[in-house]
Amino acid sequence: MSLDFQVHHVDGLARRATMTLPHAAVETPVFMPVGTVASVKAIPQHMLEELDARIILGNTYHLYLRPGHEAIRRMGGLHRFMSWPRAILTDSGGYQVFSLSHLRKLTEDGVTFRSHLDGSKHFFSPEHSMDVQIALGSDIAMAFDECTEYPAEYSRARTSLDLTLRWAARSKAHFDAHKHERPWGEEFAGQTPNLFGIVQGGMYKDLRREAAERLVEMDFPGYAIGGLSVGEPREFTREVIAETLPYLPKDKPRYVMGVGYPDEIVEYAKMGVDMMDCVLPTRAARHGLLFTSEGRMTIKNRQYAEDQNPPDPNCGCMVCRRYTRAYLRHLKVAEEPLSAVLNTLHNLTFYLDTMAKVRKEIEAAKTAVRD
Predict the structure, then answer these.
(1) What is the pLDDT of residues 243-287, one digit of tens each?
(2) Which of 264, 289, 334, 371 has a 20 to 30 Å separation from 157 between CA atoms?
(3) Are both 292 and 216 inside the same structural domain?
(4) Three-state SS string across the chain, please?
(5) Does a structural domain hold residue 105?
(6) Among residues 258, 278, 298, which one ends one of the domains?
(7) Does residue 161 have a pLDDT over 60?
(8) Confidence band of 371 (pLDDT split at 50, 70, 90)
(9) pTM
(10) Between residues 309 and 103, the one the model is more confident about
(11) Cβ atoms of residues 224 and 252 within 8 Å
């Protein structure tokens, strides 16, 4: 099998599971670092391995534009190109095209858009998105969808959802017909990538339920809840997740896209979410914002100028073991590139450790799932 999902323990709605993919076994609930252009910004792959990251994200839209999916295919796929032997999930490009609203034209066939790099004209259809993701060779690909903006009137969300569901069916048909064309080596003979469906529907509970039920009928290996973190209040995000999860299969992975702060990912994991991703820990790091057990820390603040304490006294990462707040502040104020590296290393450690603690808490509940 190319995806095996085994739930080991439950604690209320939360589940502790192992998701086995062609390139790695991923312990869930999991936070996935975002590597938009084949790079988790400011941190090399060997450090991600040292942090025990088992799965990262790549971005279809950006990699399609540069260096090009066919170039990556010729170089053996994204794993080999970026020297990352573990699992990769690629998004469909739908969210990035959504963010280019002033540069795109939407039709039933797909989306015509202009590159944010040079203004050149391109076209993405569900079939083309699948071709790009298959060429990249990710372990998990995402169906091509339209991300509904916030706020959106009911009629707009209805029309968008109907289109997304038609695109989901087209995505799955094309993916299933071509997934064996992935650029993996002989050691992966017989294994294929997996395609997840994406639940849309704006902030409307009935649309979310319908989307989930119709996608489940299509029988994807896993399901994502998309269309969140697009400007809606946080309580709306939680409500949509809580309303959608009961309609997704308990024996398949459930993924919430593009979330969130540390307290949010803990909350969502306890609601039964298995997979989450967000650019926040790496983006915040580059701006000098650290996540710690004592709260958020803006490291360039003057109060840290001579502070000899570690960034987080309760963190065991190599940054907190070796460097002081004063030194990290100096690097940020001086705009030294090392600032982004060290801050990112700490923030990703904090996020990954946060999920590891959640997994241990679920295991400690001792409610084992029997065959």
Answers:
(1) 999 999 999 999 999 999 999 999 999 999 999 999 999 999 999
(2) 264
(3) no
(4) CCCEEEEEEEECCEEEEEEEECCEEEEECEEECECCCCCCCCCCHHHHHHCCCCEEEEEHHHHHHCCCHHHHHHCCCHHHHCCCCCEEEEECCHHHHHHCHHHEEECCCCEEEECCCCCCEEEECHHHHHHHHHHHCCCEEECCCCCCCCCCCHHHHHHHHHHHHHHHHHHHHHHHHHHHHCCCCHHHCCCCCEEEEEECCCCCHHHHHHHHHHHHHHCCCEEEECCCCCCCCHHHHHHHHHHHHHHCCCCCCEEECCCCCHHHHHHHHHCCCCEEECCHHHHHHHCCEEEECCEEEECCCHHHCCCCCCCCCCCCCHHHHHCCHHHHHHHHHCCCHHHHHHHHHHHHHHHHHHHHHHHHHHHHCCCECCC
(5) yes
(6) 278
(7) yes
(8) low
(9) 0.97
(10) 309
(11) no
Amino acid letter for position 97 = V
Give me the active site residues, please.
91, 277
For the cut 70, the answer to whether the pLDDT of residue 316 exceeds it is yes
Residues 14 and 272: beta-carbon distance below 8 Å: yes
Bridge-based pairing of strands 87-91 and 55-59 is parallel
Which is nearest to 348 in space by CA: 31, 4, 23, 20? 31
Question: Is 1 or 38 the better-scoring residue by pLDDT?
Answer: 38
Per the structure, the complete domain to which residue 87 belongs is given by 29-278
Other C-beta atoms lying within 10 Å of the C-beta of residue 57: 21
CATH number of the domain encompassing residue 69: 3.20.20.105
